[in-house]
């Protein structure tokens, strides 16, 4: 299957079987379904509200946070936008989190990572009320997920599960290789894939920067989930025919004419081998954002005791 990148998205230019898993479309459908969940809560007198806290100068982080606000607005979730000077003492961030924890009008709290070096990220994550921890990074929520009783699944792996379900990918009994051991993606992804649940029941190999002979692992896989943050590190030679490829990477690389976004997968050669593949952009990224909304609606339902159906 050959794809061409035109006007911001990949299009198929030859006729074979490879399925392009369209995260933009699935995410739009989830957002649309979430509107009725939000309306149901709002009709009880509470409007869901997400607070974001940004304590860095990184333009990419600023863009991510601003997109999260736009998404919230689209589905009827209110937002509070807090920025803290990256030079400020850590205590300022801790005080902000404490205030948000006790503010009943705030249902979800997201502290955008990375944080400045003088702030202990783990201490911040521990400080967020686990019921408002819409990232799912608090140790209580991590423990619940590992124990098979998730409260908030981290947004990227949760979004990937939704994509696999939407694309009709069978995970039960599949050999899945997850590349990357981050707390945000790799570890929770591996944990979710082994659970006795939808988009679970897979046999998982978790690979990372010290894995020997990565290609021998990926060639054995039915599903490859690349989340190492290394531009185009997986190519078609590392895959067997018929693999499902999920690309979590969003890497900006320099080109002769400027720069472009690429994933952790070399798309053209991987698409030649894959049965199904996610593009970058337009694959996992929009799903991560949609699942933040999902978690925020769930957080509102939990903290206000309103029962609500989620898509
Ligand atoms: N920075 C990069 N990804 C994430 C994420 O999923 N949540 C937060 N809070 N910060 C991030």
TrEMBL record:
Residues reported to bind NADP(+): 180-182, 250
Pfam family, one: THF_DHG_CYH_C
One BP annotation, GO: L-histidine biosynthetic process
Superkingdom in the source lineage: Archaea
GO annotations of cellular component type: cytosol
Catalytic activity: (6R)-5,10-methenyltetrahydrofolate + H2O = (6R)-10-formyltetrahydrofolate + H(+); (6R)-5,10-methylene-5,6,7,8-tetrahydrofolate + NADP(+) = (6R)-5,10-methenyltetrahydrofolate + NADPH
Pathway of action: One-carbon metabolism; tetrahydrofolate interconversion
Residue ranges of domain Tetrahydrofolate dehydrogenase/cyclohydrolase catalytic in the record: 21-135
E.C. no: 1.5.1.5, 3.5.4.9
InterPro entries linked: Aminoacid_DH-like_N_sf, NAD(P)-bd_dom_sf, THF_DH/CycHdrlase, THF_DH/CycHdrlase_cat_dom, THF_DH/CycHdrlase_NAD-bd_dom
Keyword Secreted included in the entry's annotation: no
Keywords from the UniProt entry: Amino-acid biosynthesis, Histidine biosynthesis, Hydrolase, Methionine biosynthesis, Multifunctional enzyme, NADP, One-carbon metabolism, Oxidoreductase, Purine biosynthesis
Tetrahydrofolate dehydrogenase/cyclohydrolase NAD(P)-binding domain span: 154-300
GO molecular function list: methenyltetrahydrofolate cyclohydrolase activity; methylenetetrahydrofolate dehydrogenase (NADP+) activity
UniProt-listed NCBIfam families: PRK14167.1
Subunit structure: Homodimer.
Function: Catalyzes the oxidation of 5,10-methylenetetrahydrofolate to 5,10-methenyltetrahydrofolate and then the hydrolysis of 5,10-methenyltetrahydrofolate to 10-formyltetrahydrofolate.
Entry's family note: Belongs to the tetrahydrofolate dehydrogenase/cyclohydrolase family.
Name of this protein: Bifunctional protein FolD
Species: Haloquadratum walsbyi J07HQW1
């Amino acid at each position: 299957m050959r794809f061409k990148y035109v006007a911001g998205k990949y299009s198929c230019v030859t006729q074979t079987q490879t399925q392009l898993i369209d995260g933009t479309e699935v995410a739009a459908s989830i957002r649309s379904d979430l509107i009725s969940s939000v309306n149901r809560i709002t009709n009880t007198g509470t409007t869901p509200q997400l607070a974001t806290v940004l304590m860095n100068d990184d333009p990419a982080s600023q863009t991510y946070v601003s997109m999260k606000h736009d998404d919230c607005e689209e589905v009827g979730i209110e937002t509070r936008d807090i920025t803290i000077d990256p030079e400020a003492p850590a205590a300022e961030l801790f005080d902000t989190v404490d205030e948000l924890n006790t503010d009943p009008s705030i249902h979800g709290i997201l502290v955008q990572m990375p944080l400045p070096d003088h702030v202990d990220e783990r201490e911040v994550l521990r400080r967020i009320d686990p019921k408002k921890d819409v990232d799912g990074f608090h140790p209580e929520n991590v423990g619940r997920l590992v124990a098979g009783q998730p409260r908030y699944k981290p947004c990227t792996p949760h979004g990937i599960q939704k994509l696999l379900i939407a694309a009709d990918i069978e995970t039960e009994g599949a050999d899945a290789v997850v590349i990357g051991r981050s707390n945000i993606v790799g570890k929770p992804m591996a944990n979710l894939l082994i659970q006795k649940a939808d988009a679970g029941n897979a046999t998982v190999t978790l690979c990372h920067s010290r894995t020997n002979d990565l290609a021998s692992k990926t060639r054995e896989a039915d599903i490859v989930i690349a989340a190492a943050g290394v531009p185009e590190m997986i190519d078609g030679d590392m895959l067997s025919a018929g693999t499902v490829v999920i690309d979590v990477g969003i890497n900006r690389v320099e080109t002769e004419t400027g720069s472009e976004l690429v994933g952790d997968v070399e798309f053209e050669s991987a698409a030649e081998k894959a049965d199904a593949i996610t593009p970058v952009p337009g694959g996992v990224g929009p799903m991560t954002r949609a699942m933040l909304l999902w978690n925020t609606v769930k957080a509102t339902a939990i903290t206000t005791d309103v029962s609500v159906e989620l898509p």
